[in-house]
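Please describe the entry underneath.
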Amino acid sequence: MPNPLVKIAMTGASIAAGIVGQKVIAAVWNAVVDDDAPTNKNIKRSAKETKAARKEAKKSGASKQEVKAITDPENERPAWQIIVWTLLTGVVLQAIRQAARNGTEVGARKITERRPRANRG
């Protein structure tokens, strides 16, 4: 039966690595592409801002065509950016999580193991 402390430590390390990895990937994306990363949070924010801009345009008396011309900038994002972002967040983030799990498992097993090292002398 596996040690529950090892399992808990592995889960915690995986979650922490996922959160930190996501932030690191987003920061690198912003530095390299010079644009906001296409995360769900940014997509929802952009849709909310577009909806507010359309509502404001309607209030100010803009014609239907002018209101319709207000588009969401996230819909105009190039396909290659979405593909690269998907690969980064899928493959790279999973590799970071797995490495954190493996490292934590080895470290936690060494700490929680009950048997002393064999006397070799």
User: Anything to note?
Assistant: The chain has a mean pLDDT of 86. The CA atoms of residues 2 and 91 lie 28 Å apart.
